Every structure is written in structure tokens, then in C-alpha cells.
Amino acid sequence: MSRLNLDDFSDLIERPDSGTRRDAEERRERLAVPPGALGRLDELGEWLSAAQGAVPVRPVERPRVVLFAGDHGVAKLGVSGRDAGTAHTLVRAVLDGAGPVAVLARRMNVPVRVVDAGLDCEPELLPEDVVRHRVRRGSGRIDLEDALTAEEAERAVRLGMAVADEEADSGTDLVVLGDLSVGGTTAAATLIAALCGTDASVVTGRGGAGIDDLAWMRKCAAIRDALRRARPVLGDQLELLAAVGGADIAATTGFLLQSAVRRMPVILDGVVSAACALVGQRAAFRAPDWWLAGQVSGEPAQAKALDRMALNPLLDHGVSVGEGTGALLALPLVQAAAALAAELPERPDQPDRADGTAEGGSD
Known about the structure:
By secondary structure, this protein is an alpha/beta fold. Helix content is 47%, strand content 9%. The longest helix is centred in the middle third of the chain and has 20 residues, at 150-169. Residues 350-363 have low confidence and may be disordered.
């Protein structure tokens, strides 16, 4: 198997169809509801129409939540509100229907898929269909060592690519993307700081579980140390993922890139998916055109990444729990935009008056 080069995705990914988007915009001008009256819903409907290559836009009928799971060795430094090596408990909660994303997905009738890329637990604790693709048990402590070997990083990216192909082949028409990790926000903030050329303190947040000031200082120091290891490999995305990413982060990056190749839209959740998207943008500059930012998580690193990719979040509800929860909350907005774009009637022809002016109405 030849070595994977993420830069090759630049030639494989095309933008959503611009001609279709123009047709969708022209159709919007003819609808009975005045242009602009629906706010961002107009923009969303046109974006989705371009992604589908269809006017009018088709309804989003087969969405799916996809969550990549992993543990990060840096959590041993006490940088997370959860104990190191406990991401499997988050997975179990989702599988048992008790996690926030599971509750919402059940209410919305959206299936959830969990992929173990690098959990630090015995495989027997979780179902076979979750753990069977695991790349390694946990990821290395990025302040001192590589998260992955080069071979593991490539395996993880290829895992994400394979999952994207499986979803596209099964008819999934939109993915809600999230993560189930402990220590993942530290790795994500490191990647974003490295790619944006900023300092650790600018990107260090409190994480989904929330941390106190002392833990924040430890997290900031860990990101600072990891940045020293990241900067020499900025020219190679795969090496960067191996140095300071993690199995779940590399898999998510591969998933995002292959989803763009397969023309499958994705809603991003929090800082982890934003970091993966930023790595994906570095590899293929057109790729972000296939992604939506679901929500503002409150993590400063996420804000920097979304700004760099020119992605404007759909929601700002203060949801920081992760797990794809905030992105899933944005799904009904996307579905509503599709329904309105497809089902609103066009204005009837307006006959000219005898004086040559068009028949009009009052506001």
C-alpha cells in the first residue's frame, strides 16, 4: 500500500455545483416569501441545493450522527474534567441511550454510529461493531511524545475514509459529526494553534467537562509544550496528526476529506471537529465548502478555526457538552431550510395594469 498523501485530496475534491446554486438563487427570487425574509434559511437551502446538485433541493431524509472515540495520553496531566482513560464511559452512555446526543437523536429519529479509533479500555467492554476498527489503545502524551506512529496515523486516516465511504454508499445524505474523547480538546487546540500560528494561551479553553483555573494552567502548559513539537512538521499534515493529534482526530480528518470527495455534507460540532476540519482545509482548500459549523462551543480554539475557514456557526446556545450534541441541534434548522426551499410556492404571474405598471401589494 502506497503512503497516503493528504495533499492528493486537493485534486479529488470539487466545490458544490455553482451553476446549481445560481439556479437555486433564481428560484428563491420567484418565491412568494420575499427574499431575505427567511434570513439564513435562504442561504442554507441554496447551499444544500448546490451540494445535492438539485433544484429544487431534496429533503434531508437520511441523516446520521457519526462519533469517533478515543483517549489522549495528555489527559494524565489533569487537563480534563474527566479522568484519563475514561472515554469508554462516554461511549457506553451513548450506546445505552443516556448521553445527551443519544437522547436528542432518539427524539429526532436519527441513527447514531460510534467508531472506536483509540479508546484506552479492554475491547470486551464495548460491542464488537464499535471496537473492531481500533487503531491503537489510547494516544501518546503529546507534550512529550508523538500521539501516533506514522503508520498508525495513516491507518487512522484510512479508517475515517472507509467510514465515510460506508455512509455515502448506504445513502446517508447528511452527517452530524462529533467526538467522544478525554483530552481531545487539548490536542485539538494544539493543532489549531499550530496551523493558525498563535500562542497556547489564545486557544486554551475549559473543555466540555469544565476545568478549574489550575487545570487550565496545566492545559495551557501542555499545549505550549506540544506546540514546540508540532511546528517542525507543519508542512506535512499526516506527520502533524501523528505528532500532536490522536487516532480519533486523524480518523475524523480522513472522514471529513473523504466525505467531501463523496459530496456528502457534514455538520461540525465543537473544537475537535473544527481542528480536524482545519487540517483538512490545509490539505484541500475546497473541502470546507462541504461543511457547516453547527454551533459555537465556547472554546476559543474553535472560534479561531472557524474564522480561518470562513464558517459561520448556525447556533449559539452555549452547549459545550460535545458528543455532537450542538451539531445535532442544528440539524432541524438545515432540514427546515430544505423544506422551505422546496415547498414554498412561487409568486403567481402579476399582470400589467392598463397604465403600464405592474400590479403590486402593500406591506
